């Protein structure tokens, strides 16, 4: 059974750095072709893709957020970590991690999401 | 960036009727398009990938069609549990991966 779960702070202040962890089970991020991505959704709005990491540690970022993002993986812990610097109230959203089984970059499995509010 | 545009924004359909949702890409994405369903308070669920292939466990009443820039998701006979917001996503030309703005399906 494949599961993913996001964890991290629910409230951050403007200008702070957000660190979110995706802990997963049921697959290995060292298997060829697989990957994990982060997607966010502001309240009442559409989905926005943020970042993606491949099994071979190749990484992709949203061009509009690239300068603020870092995605890493710890295969031994079955975790993917996303850091986003200089948080702003417009970054308030539910943040999801999601798993790509392989080959093409749609997401087969999603975590439940975690709501992050940016406010002073 | 490939812009994905979904229509209509809201669709009200009676149980048992057909629902047709549209997704348009600003440039060709070949058949590299996925559809997701999202219910309130839940994560999105993959319905369709490759424009027309149902994901594991998705009922046959869901079907996808199209290629290039025009795509359609059809729910042949709407069930009460099919309410929610439906998103399309292209994965042909990225980064960035891009989603449409969503179509909300309401039960009439």
Short description:
Chain A has 120 residues and is mainly beta.
Largest sheet of chain A: 7 strands, mixed
The proportion of residues forming helix of chain A, as a percent range, comes to under 10%
What share of residues are in beta strands of chain B? over 45%
Radius of gyration over C-alpha positions of chain A, nearest whole angstrom: 14 Å
* Class by alpha and beta content of chain B: mainly beta
Distance between the termini of chain B: 36 Å
Number of strands of chain A: 11
Overall mean pLDDT of chain A? 96
Order of secondary-structure elements of chain A: EEEEEEEEEEE
**Average residue-wise pLDDT of chain B:** 97
Instruction: Give unreliable regions of chain A as ranges.
Output: none
Distance between the termini of chain A: 40 Å
Evaluate the radius of gyration of chain B: 13 Å
- So what's the overall shape of chain B? globular
What does this structure look like?
- The complex is a heterodimer of chains A (120) and B (108).
- Chain A contains no helices and eleven strands.
- Chain A is mostly beta strands and 120 residues long.
- The mean pLDDT of chain A is 96.
- Chain B is mainly β.
- Chain B is built from no helices and eleven strands.
- Chain B has strands spanning 4-7, 10-13, 19-25, 33-38, 45-49, 53-54, 62-67, 70-75, 84-90, 98-99, 103-107.
- In chain B, the strands form two sheets. In chain B, strands 2, 4, 5, 6, 9, 10 and 11 form a seven-stranded mixed beta sheet that branches. Chain B has a four-stranded antiparallel beta sheet with strand order 1-3-8-7, with no helix packed on it.
- In chain B, a hairpin with a 7-residue loop joins strand 9 and strand 10 (98-99).
- Chain B starts with a strand and ends with a strand.
- Chain A binds chain B through residues 37, 46-49, 52, 60-64, 96, 98, 104-113, and chain B through 1, 32, 34, 36, 42-46, 49-50, 55, 87, 89, 91, 94-102.
